[in-house]
Amino acid sequence: MASRYNEKRRKAAEFALNKELDSGYGKTNFESIVSADTRDAAMGKGEEELFEKKLSKEEKKAMAKAAREAKRIAKEKKNGGKKTKKVKGEDESGEEKKEDVESILNKVVSTMSIEEQKRETAIEKLNRENIAVTYEQKRGNLHANTRDILVTGVSVTFHGKTLVEDSEVRINYGNRYGFIGPNGSGKSTVMKAIAARAIPIPDALDIYFLDCEYPARDDITALQAVMESNNEVAILEKQAEELNQLMAEIDDEDSQMRIQDQMESIYERLDALDVNSAEARATTILFGLGFTTHMQHMKTREFSGGWRMRVALARALFLKPEFLLLDGKHTLVLLS
Distance (Å, rounded) from C-alpha 124 to C-alpha 55? Predict the structure, then answer.
């Protein structure tokens, strides 16, 4: 009796198992999975895992503020949940700390302007080449947003030899100018002086001086050479990080305001540089100068001097300078 009962149960279980297998239970429907993945990809699902979202200036500032707030809270927890307060008898040490913060802030801010660093380097180069520039001083400060250049009484000497004497330099925004003169008359020297801002030039005008072709290198392609011209991005991002850390460490409101102003200018400059479209812009500029897709990925040593001058010009156009100074016969050929 028991054996017949067990046999009946076994057959019932076998029947149920066969029914489940026939209905497809336990099978993986690969076609439906592929279909679902294709649909999700078409709708853009999952892109957030592959591409980093471009943050706006406000989002970057918000993230920096959140990071500073987190550091401040962590510091308060470390002190037992109490804010650090200045007590009697600590005036002298507090003043010392404020002076230390001020000295650090001045050091960071003094290295903030990349354009000022370039200007100092260019002036030092003029001095090494014995190029001296004098001009007529005017009362009042030059307006920062002025676009036109007007300097009187300009004199330029090279190793004591006068090239330009008591002349007027007038350059109006939006115009193109040609500098004509015989070989050896000092055209390149005067252009070097202008590029170095040896005469008063508005800060709002960024200058790019192109006087030679890009060097022949076997470790960089034409496209990479154009994109590397904008090393300002890496410098600005590093400075923003340093300022953000400094902001979290100090409590002085005036110093925080100064740091905040510098950070605002950094984020505005980063937005203007538009890092995400850098490669597309570089490719478009090179194509406009005659570089095919294959040529853009060739090493610069594989090009002649004329083509390397085009690479140098592409670097200049990539930076979008408001004041572009071109010196040399190759640049004239390219412009024509």
Answer: 39
* Distance, CA of 294 to chain centre: 27
Task: Report how far residue 315's alpha carbon sits from residue 309's, in angstroms, rounded to the nearest whole number.
Answer: 10
310 to each of 194, 214, 219, how far by Cα in Å?
A: 23, 8, 18
Characterize 106-118 residue by residue with b for buried, 16 or more Cβ atoms within 10 angstroms of its Cβ, and e for exposed. eebbeebeeeeeb
Contact 207, 185 (CB under 8 A): no
Cβ-Cβ contacts under 8 Å for 152 (sequence gap 6 or more): 135, 136, 168, 169
Q: How far apart are CA 171 and CA 146, in angstroms?
A: 12
Cβ-Cβ contacts under 8 Å for 199 (sequence gap 6 or more): 133, 135, 149, 151, 154, 169, 193
Q: Rounded distance, CA 214 to CA 315, Å?
A: 9
Q: Give, as one character, the DSSP assignment of residue 302.
A: G
**CA 334 to chain CA centroid, nearest Å:** 27
Q: Measure CA 140 to chain center.
A: 33
State how far the alpha carbon of 49 is from the alpha carbons of 44, 53, 98, 275, in Å: 11, 10, 44, 20
What is the DSSP code (8-state) at residue 221? Answer: B
Distance, CA of 191 to CA of 170 (rounded, Å): 13
pLDDT tens readout for residues 153-169: 999 999 999 999 999 99
Helical packing angle, 57-78 and 253-273, nearest 10°: 150
Sheet containing strand 131-134, edge to edge, reads 131-134, 149-158, 161-171
Supply 107's token pair.
């050091």
CA distance 278 to 297: 16
Q: What is the pLDDT of residues 195-235, one digit of tens each?
A: 999 999 887 788 889 989 999 999 999 999 998 877 777 77
